[in-house]
Predict the structure.
Amino acid sequence: MPAPLRSVGAALAALFLLLPLLAQAPTPLTADQVQAIAKTAQQAAGATGLAIAVVQDGDVLVELGIGERAPGQPMTANSLCNIASCSKAFTAAAVALLVQEGKLKWDDLVVDHLPEFRLADAWITQHMTVRDLLCHRCGLVTFAGDLLWYGSDYDDHEVLRRAARLPLVQRFREQFGYQNLMFLVAGLIVQKHAGCSWEEFVERRFFTPLGMTASRSSAQRLPADAEKALPHIDGAVIPDHEFTACKPAASIYSSVHEMTAWMRMLLAGGKWNGTEILSEASLREMWRPHTMASSRGSGAATDDMRSYGLGWSVSLERGQKVIEHDGGMPGFLSKVSLMPAERFGFVVLNNANDGALNELVKRALLAQRAGRDGVAVAAELKTIKPRIAAYEADKVKQREDARKLGTKPTQALDAYAGRYEDAIYGPAEIRFDGTALQIVLLPSKRRLSGTLQHWHHDTFRVDWPDKFLPFGLVRFDFDHEGKVAAFRIDCPIADFDFGALDFRRTAAAR
């Protein structure tokens, strides 16, 4: 059979296999079922705190909190968590409001609204549109440039200036590269046309009309008496991340109780109490595929349909469109999922830094709606969590086993001290206190600093104060005269590309 006909035949066969699923109507959930799933998942994960709310047929079915939001303080449906990248949907909606008001168009050029905008490629810079900002297709790889804002003192404008040097290694408008920096740019455009900050605009145009009175667009705007959840890693409280830059990508704080208003408005076609918040045209634009997302490689037909809209991921479940987003910041994980055709949705927040927990809750809820045992799905965390822990421990062991014992630095310790510079990120210092070396990445000194302990040869280990990060290995390089000239950092974490940093010793330091 010719290849095209084989493809058609395979597609028809897959369609026939899917027909029973497409025809099967969902089984309505009960509040007791949701509570049982959430309780089972939280206990199986050993999570600090978990909050969940479900909207069914456009109405709130259940809101609840389990565990602790802080030591000795219960997690409730009103506990405020950093919803992290679920904030992106609010930024896309903020842009949609400005489109509705005629202040800009989706396909306006970014440089027409933000003349200082630059990327490393001049053609892409001149052709980047507002739409491109919100669908992860600008040419930067996933998470490129995030170390510019994560824990740093740089403001949005300085991050934007430095991001202009980031290498563009993907095809513009063809390849998916998850990008927080482009949402920063979108926030600056909102600020320019709104006449106020992105934070004020989101609170005034969404939180206020939806009655989200406790939600705030950043941690700095939370009142002192807010019922705030504290972030945890490995069961211990860690310092919260207070954004200086890149707030439109991930800085909102909300609760599952108040997020139900956001979900219900979206599921009602953008209307709330008879008032239009977002037009149906805006929702269609945000919820249609713009960029094909990379497949997870399972070969499942639904993976081939995964894409990204504007501030939302788009996929299929039982033949129905699923609009959702996940979020993660150290100590907080979030998930918002909507099935608009069924007026169904849910939000899951946890302060345990546990992504498996949120995903299993999702799979359990969908399984229960499909007539299966959702509690049994949630209980799978009991076996999944040890496997994840074993995998992570094995990665650490591989790094430790690669250490070459019995070696020593080739230079006296004070020879490594000096000031260094990465062309994009900025300055760093290696300091010698007479006993040990210290590393300080100056823009992010609160999170990216620490004592260097000899590892092997001219490589040193640093345990960052940020418990979200694995230990780093700092390797020094030498010039043709044998003098210390540079260092690089090996810190294997998917969220940040430490490997892109190339710190060169400055002339003044020699």
Notes: The longest strand covers residues 59-70.
